[in-house]
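Subject: sequence -> structure tokens, single chain

Hey, anyone have a minute? Need the predicted structure for the following. Not urgent.
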Amino acid sequence: MKNTETKTQMKAIILAAGVGSRIRPLTDNCPKSLLKIDGKTILEMMLSHIRDCGINDVVFVLGYLQEQIKDYVSANFPDLNARFITNEKYAETNTGFSLMLAMESIEGSDFVKFDADVVFDKEILKKLIECEYDNCLCIDKNINLDVEEIKVIIDNKNQVVKASKIVNPQEAVGESIGIEKISAETAKILLEELKVMMEDEQNHQEYYEAAYERLIEKNIPFNTLDITGLRWTEIDTKEDFATAKKIFA
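Reply:
Had a minute. Here:
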């Protein structure tokens, strides 16, 4: 278990470079993370939780309509130690490429990584920071697993064996919700792995979970935190957005 001092030194990475094409026209002139749920933007809810849990250093990876996000963070969270990284190739790359760019700024710290389109209870982040595992994926076991979900297979030690969209739903224990904790030690290895991956342009469309799986194959353990029953949702479509409004009204 990490002590309180270590927790406050932890950093956050928010991946917010994407276009949000599946939720258009809502994102034609607005980044997905600035859409509002019950009067608050998705990003405001996320950053409030991050700050309340003692994290003040946040690295953003931006691309689509990035100036709106920069202006929003500067205006609404002026005391946040925010660093903005631009993924110039956001239109033709995926989350693995964005995570690689962000990790250049982590500088030997533990970090929590967030997909910018996840809305969640603060309790999820609190539990993740406090959990005993160095590398940990938040998973929901009470999910109807389909093609789009990142499905997770674990072994009898609660260690991740596979985490991807192509996992057989019948073999999966649940869905990874897009929030993970990574140790400083693993972060260095993960960055090198991502760099190797992204040297091949065929990997530019890979999700960051592909890099996690490559580390798992090298016997670097990733565990899971069961957050079943706590509120969260990922917003990919207009239907997801409607669901989020119901859950967090």
